[in-house]
Amino acid sequence: MLRKIARTTLSDGTYANLRDWVDYVRLPEEAREECRRDRQGLPDHDPGAQAVIPAITEWLGRAQDESRSSDGGFARDYSLLTGWNESYPETSGYIVPTLLSEAGFQQDRRLAERARHCLDWLVAIQMDNGGFQGGTVSQKPRIAVTFNTGQILIGLAAGAHYWSDERYMNAMHAAARFLRDSQDSDGAWRQHATPFAKEGDKTYETHVSWGLFEAERVAPGQGYAQAGLAQVRWALSRQSANGWFADNDLEDSRRPLTHTIGYAMRGVIEAYRLSRDPIFLDSACRTADALIRVTEHDGHIPGHLDSGWFAAAPYTCLTGTSQISLCWFLLGLELGRADYVDAALRANAYVRRTINLEGGPDHRGGVKGSFPVSGVYGQYQYLNWAAKFTLDAQRMELMLAEGGV
Known about the structure:
- This protein has helices spanning 18-25, 29-39, 49-65, 89-105, 109-125, 146-163, 166-181, 206-218, 224-236, 258-275, 278-294, 318-335, 338-352, 384-401; strands spanning 77-79, 83-84, 132-133, 144-145, 316-317, 370-371, 381-383.
- It is mainly alpha-helical.
- It comes from Salinisphaera aquimarina.
- InterPro entries: 6-hairpin_glycosidase_sf.
């Protein structure tokens, strides 16, 4: 197994010992080239939202076309070590509303057809209990998982609304009932945990609640909103006064990823947008304010943060940066707070400058898991969900600039 170069490079980009250098040399040339590029730091040129949006959209289309499983889903990633992966149901689900939105903005019906192709595949792999599996499509064990079901529910609700298709409506109800009916009395979900993360409660499952809120909007009166709001209230019981959430990581809750922090905060914001209960707005703002304080002038946010909001990793998780940017935009527009919008713009610019708009089609327009690419999260990979959240954040910026929000 290749060692994690991000932990063994020195500040000048050299390697700590000969073995680390040998590991680097053994990387495929494509991976070595990306490492060399990233060690030079961010380029000075910011291509702007208008340039990266079509490039990311094109990359997502390639992720669907090149998926190793060739089923209509989106490849989990393009790896600089192993090439294209197979389809990933969880994130394919929430890519659907992004494509439907972009079909309108870009006046390109082919994007809506891509979304429909993906939904048809997701409906076909839904389990009898309404749930969806964790992991990539052939990963074992193949069992229904709360979190993955919630993310796919976001896409099913979007499809049911967009097309008024009975198949998507039925699948949406089945997934929403699976979540509603498997909830514990305190609001948390524990019955269908993922086998691909450390055991224990997960506050970032507020992002599952968002799926229930979308189902409620399409088909109100089934108890979907109540279930989602109960879980978010439980998550708030795990939030500290400084805005930090406990039990909020895939593996190490002492130093959660900005990715899961972004999940948690977005779910809380969506609870507020549905209910207008100020307790959710206050919670989201406490987290948003803390994140502004740790964001550098150039938009860099550490990839992991501890309970005191101190950096706990040397690299940036680009997915989390884009998710947090989206949350700042939403709060800034809700409250008229320029500091939130400014932070979002800086974060967006940071991520944009990591995106390669030239070179081969497999990574042109893709968004890396980490910057530098050797960072621990999504190491040497371009992730489909990093592309999705970055596209959403860049679109929000462009809409704001054009006065369309």
